[in-house]
Amino acid sequence: MTDGTRAIETDPSVCYRHPGRQSWVLCQRCGRTVCPECQILAPVGVHCPDCVAETSGGVSWRPANNVVPLEKPKRRRTRQPGRVRSMLAGAGGSGGSPVSQGVLVVYAALFLVGLLTQNLPFQWLAGARGYGWQVWRFVTAPVSYYATPDLSILFALLSGVFFWLTAPQLERMLGTHRFIGVLLASSIVGTAGTMLSGTTAYGLTSLLFGLFAALLVEVWGDPRLRSQILIITGINLLLSLTMGGAGLPALVGGMIGGAGTMYLLRVGPDRGWKPRTPVLIVAGVCALLIVLSVVRFGILM
């Protein structure tokens, strides 16, 4: 293996055999990224050509320049269910999800500190009306929670569980950088939407529904999976509104941020955009919402 190949394999966004092609699919055996032309349907998930050759070698595969165009839709339909089902089935897990773990550790720690300090973290980190000029709140609001020794403990715990059932697998699927982008956009848009509505933003609602929306964009081409994600999102919507928290503005804002970011990351390479173009678009929208929030409710009266 050449040094160039090693460098390519460290980039989770491109196929290890075709560095000019972006893909979200990983080989279930070695974890390398494979484009649609290199994906081989195996009994469990998708394998790369090298792994098939190293194991049984019994699965037929043809190079990209010999693939019949009519076979592409069939391969696309068969690979996605296995990938997403394994993601949904593998709830939680710690391997390869440092950002998800970090968010939950900070969330739990701040909640415990809040119980012991009369909610000091909430006072400094939540997206409160009149404090929009403290721009860090647009990022820290999701990890803050109004902690009281009553049912809020149960609600905070359930939010953390739902996040843990979704975030780690999506982080492994997207890669760290793209996952962080989805989280930041969901947090900023959700917090800004809540503040613009005149209420306080806090809790994991915006992040959780931002991840649901990003996953929905990813599986939209498969009707069955799309229905499953919509049902899961609907159930969590009812639970979220019942449990309380930041409410509908954070939920809707988080979904807009997550879905919008995921969509731009997917269509950018197909349209020949530079890698930084989707980042600049998302950053511009987030900056605009922060400015609007500061102008409307950003100064403490």
TrEMBL record:
Protein name: Rhomboid family intramembrane serine protease
InterPro entries (UniProt xref): Peptidase_S54_rhomboid_dom (IPR022764), Rhomboid-like_sf (IPR035952)
Keywords annotated in UniProt: Hydrolase, Membrane, Protease, Transmembrane, Transmembrane helix
TM helices/strands, residue ranges: 104-126, 146-167, 179-196, 202-221, 233-259, 279-299
Organism lineage string: Bacteria, Bacillati, Actinomycetota, Actinomycetes, Micrococcales
Organism: Amnibacterium setariae
Gene Ontology terms describing biological process: proteolysis
Domain spans labelled Peptidase S54 rhomboid: 133-265
Membrane association type: Multi-pass membrane protein
